[in-house]
């Protein structure tokens, strides 16, 4: 786990290893939310990059016999 320092302007730098592993680039939007006493950063990807990311997913759903 990498620690970062909050600047006097409340800014942080995302470490290079994290940026590279998540594919974050300069100018990219990131969603920030709080959850149970922690901060989560979620990269927002353009819709064009999301095309086909669910290819091959199993869509078979087990249903109860009375729910057909």
Please describe what this structure looks like.
This protein is of the alpha+beta class. It contains 2 helices and 2 strands, in the order αββα. The protein has a two-stranded antiparallel sheet with strand order 1-2. The longest helix is centred in the N-terminal third of the chain and has 7 residues, at 16-22. It is elongated and about 60 Å long. The model has no long low-confidence stretch (mean pLDDT 89).
Name the features.
single chain, 68 residues, alpha+beta, two-stranded antiparallel ribbon, 2 helices, 16% helix
What helical percentage do the residues reach?
A: 10-25%
Name the quaternary structure.
single chain
- The first-to-last residue Cα distance is 48 Å
Can you give the mean pLDDT? Answer: 89
Unreliably modeled segments? none
The DSSP helix count reads 2
* Molecular shape: elongated
Helical/strand content category: alpha+beta
Radius of gyration: 19 Å
The largest sheet is: 2 strands, antiparallel
Task: Count the E strands.
Answer: 2
Order of helices and strands: HEEH
Strand order of the largest sheet: 1-2
Please describe the topology of this protein:
Elements: H1 16-22, E1 30-34, E2 39-43, H2 47-50
Antiparallel strand pairs: 1-2
